[in-house]
Design brief:
Layout: H1 9-13, E1 21-34, E2 37-43, E3 51-56, H2 62-67, E4 73-82, E5 90-101, H3 117-122, H4 131-153, E6 157-158, E7 164-165, E8 177-178, E9 205-207, H5 212-222, E10 224-232, E11 245-254, H6 258-279, H7 281-290, H8 295-304, E12 308-311, H9 312-321, H10 338-348, E13 353-359, E14 375-383, E15 387-394, H11 399-408, H12 417-424, E16 430-436, H13 437-445
Parallel strand pairs: 3-5, 6-10, 12-13
Antiparallel strand pairs: 1-2, 1-4, 2-3, 4-5, 7-9, 8-9, 10-11, 11-16, 13-14, 14-15, 15-16
Helix pairs in contact: 4-6, 4-7, 6-8
This protein binds 4-amino-1,4-dioxobutan-2-aminium adenosine-5'-monophosphate (4AD) and magnesium ion.
The site of 4-amino-1,4-dioxobutan-2-aminium adenosine-5'-monophosphate has 21 residues, from strand 11, strand 15, strand 16 and helix 13.
């Protein structure tokens, strides 16, 4: 037998020469029989589009044809020809068909009719086979690649920060403990406390809520770095915007101030949108048709407009004047909720917004203190349909101010000795931010629940698959 290379459906549809013999492998989406011909739509995951396989019913065994049902896996050899039918430019006239795996139509949960997102979450192991999840996963891949390309092209180094950490310092949220202690039989000290001396690391440890603190150590030697990894928050927030395990991109730059940081946040998100429009067109068009009719328009709109920049204080004034009944009260010193953020973006300014200079009391200890003694040099980027997509700041580089703030908040100063050393030895102004990767993918795909833009979502009481 002559060896044949398997072709990707994407390449065949993109203008491969007709008249040639080709081999494709994939999963059956649909089969129709008209007179003596079976038309099979085959998908191999390389594109949202299927390739049509034309099978002469008289030339193949009846039991093979019977087993070609939705979900079955096939290898097909045949001639690529231009198609007479509507909806496709080329199709394959089959000469050989091998069935790799049958798929029992009685028990296969994915039927041709549309399924609800809730139902698909219950069969998350199979939902990749739907058009919607294929599109989302391909876009997620393209965005990961674009993140690395963006930073690599600009001289940033990819820094791998730890997933297991021993400091409880970020204050970003509740943490998951990491332990090898036997929970049925916890060793205790004489005082009756948990004896972490006998735990794996000899001290309490947890899953990281952010790579920032370690990222700063890298930036203060390498100049510009970024992290891109999983982060964990054990908050009990059951919202369409929160996951217990999510991916975050955290650039950190020595000698950059808050304005440089805002410029980067705007340029970076616009680059990612442009990349998706240029490289994920078919998937975006599919999602625009099936999930959110305003998707592409919204992406193009964000690209075309500069982000509105204002202070938290100015934003609160706008919100106080708004004729709206808020679920959560508005007032200087209170944190903004999604409803407030979305009002600013979607109703008031009608474009992305960057808010700066938040009250010190509602932000993390490491943010650079402003001269007013009340606010810090924070920046949050707010997006339409999402609310906060980026959170960041210029960092406090002054050792005394930083130490003072840590003590004020009652944080464990001695655990942070390594962090404070950067302020002792050659400190420098620096800035950075965190972009929530799944919030970005929500924006890029028009999907409405964050559980549907990550392959295997982790949320309260849900760690299946
Ligand atoms: O605003 P956050 O908490 O900032 C930090 O963690 C900083 N250390 C980042 C930095 O300056 N290097 O989180 C950053 C972003 C948020 O804007 C949001 O997009 C996302 O991470 N995020 C979440 N995404 C999904 N589920 C959650 N539970 C999230 N919490 C934060
Ligand atoms: Mg935040």
């Amino acid at each position: 037998m002559v060896f044949m290379k398997r072709e990707r459906v994407k390449e065949l549809l993109a203008g491969h020469a007709t008249g040639e013999k080709v081999l494709v492998k994939g999963w059956v989406r649909t089969k129709r029989e008209i007179k003596n011909v079976a038309f099979v739509a085959l998908n191999d995951g390389s594109t949202i589009n299927n390739i049509q396989i034309v099978i002469d019913i008289n030339a193949f065994p009846a039991d093979l044809l019977r087993d070609i049902t939705t979900g079955a896996s096939l290898a097909v050899t045949g001639t690529l020809v231009s198609s007479q039918g509507k909806g496709q430019s080329v199709e394959i006239t089959a000469s050989e068909v091998t069935l790799h795996g049958k798929c029992d139509p009685e028990t296969y949960p994915l039927q041709k009719k549309g399924h609800s997102m809730e139902f698909l979450r219950e069969i998350a192991h199979l939902r990749f086979r739907t058009n919607t999840f294929g599109a989302v996963i391909r876009i997620r891949h393209a965005m990961s690649f674009a993140v690395h390309k963006y930073f690599n092209d600009r001289g940033f180094y990819y820094l791998h920060t730890p997933i297991i950490t021993g400091s409880d310092a970020e204050g970003a949220g509740e943490m998951f403990h990491v332990t090898t202690l036997d929970l049925e039989n916890i060793p205790r000290t004489r005082e009756g406390e948990v004896d972490y001396e006998r735990d794996f690391f000899g001290k309490p440890t947890n899953l990281t809520v952010s790579g920032q603190l370690e990222g700063e150590l890298g930036a203060l030697a390498l100049g510009e770095i970024y992290t891109f990894g999983p982060t964990f928050r054990a908050e009990n927030s059951n919202t369409p915007r929160h996951l217990a395990e999510f991916w975050m991109i955290e650039p950190e730059m020595a000698f950059w101030d808050i304005t440089d940081n805002m410029d980067l946040g705007e340029d970076f998100t616009k680059y990612l949108i442009r990349y998706a429009l240029d490289n994920c067109r078919e998937d975006l068009e599919f999602l625009n048709k099936m999930i959110d009719n305003a998707l592409i328009e919204r992406l193009e709109f964000v690209l075309a407009n500069s982000y509105m920049r204002l202070t938290y204080t100015e934003a609160v004034e706008i919100l106080e004047k708004a004729s709206r009944k808020w679920e959560y009260p508005v007032g200087w010193g209170r944190d903004l909720q999604a409803e407030h953020e979305r009002y600013l973006v979607e109703t008031h300014f009608k474009r992305p917004v960057i808010l700066t200079d938040y009250p010190m009391s509602i932000k993390a200890f490491y943010m650079k203190q402003n001269d007013d003694g009340k606010t810090v040099r924070a920046m949050d980027v707010l997006f339409p349909g999402i609310g906060e997509i980026i959170g960041g700041s210029q960092r406090e580089e002054d050792l005394d101010k930083l130490t003072g703030r840590i003590e004020e908040l009652g944080l464990p100063l001695k655990d942070l000795w390594w962090y404070l050393d950067t302020r002792k030895f050659g400190t420098a102004p620096h800035s950075g931010f965190g972009l929530g990767f799944e919030r970005l993918i929500l924006f890029m795909t028009g999907m409405s629940n964050i559980r549907d833009v990550i392959p295997f979502p982790r949320t309260p009481r849900n760690a299946g698959f």
